[in-house]
Specification:
This protein is about 45% helix and about 15% strand. It is an alpha/beta fold.
Amino acid sequence: MRGAVAAAQQRDVEVILVGPSGLLESELRKNEGPKRGIRCVEATEVIREAEPPASAVRRRPNSAIVVGTKLVRAGEADGVVSAGPSGATTVAAVQHLGMIEGMERPAIGSTLGSFAPGVLLMDLGANVDCKPHHMVSFAVAGTVYARKFLRITDPTVALLSTGAEEGKGNEVVREAYALLKKSGLNFVGNVEGSEILERKANVILCDGFVGNVLLKFYESVGDRALEWIMAKLRRNPPARVLARAAFNRLFPISKMSYEGEEEGSGILWGVNGVVRIAHGACRASHILHGIASARNAVKLDIVASLKEELARARPDASI
């Protein structure tokens, strides 16, 4: 809620909150939400994380995820940001917005932030199992992402694998390698896990199982590293005081910036509309950035750009 309120307060964007109206209005009062810039739309059902996505979307048409996606389809909203179950959000988006021609499956893409600026991963959880030609369409989407959001003119594309050589990796990776070589994209081969933060490529491809595990591990490292550092500093009180002052100066907790991309969520590429998926552990700042990113995606017209890029892709790459 705090992230949505901050978005409405800071930018020229109207935020539509979808859910039980009584609960939403109560939370708005607690967070001193603005009278203008936010409105509520009733949704009486909830999809739980453990529910099978396809059946849950079908059985709960009045859930926030489904109602929010339908608002985009109806033109009442330009995009949707969901911190609900990613599987249900993906199913709702595919069912009610449809897929762009040239992409059989959607993919979640997100940047890696401060430690690897200019690097993004595709897919982060929309597809547990992928076929080789899916990787090619993910590469096209990642290329559009890098051009539009990161302003990289000719993004490099690589496959995440167990070795840099062409023959490394499982069957899907090896076959995808062959397709990407003739895709017309700026494909630079394989990268290993140790090379991700070295920025060996701008777009790094993997299936959603690997990508989701990798992203959640990556997001946990910062907090664990800070805990380790503070534990060491407790043994030296003067150093601890200086370190705390330095951390507060470098990373002010109370300041929520609206610019750029932010960890905690990713755009769902391939559906015929702007959908931003956030995982359940995200904080207010992540929701704020998620709304910012969705707004930027609409302004940049990423759906039209992806359609154009897919239409230009080489047919012999089997997209």
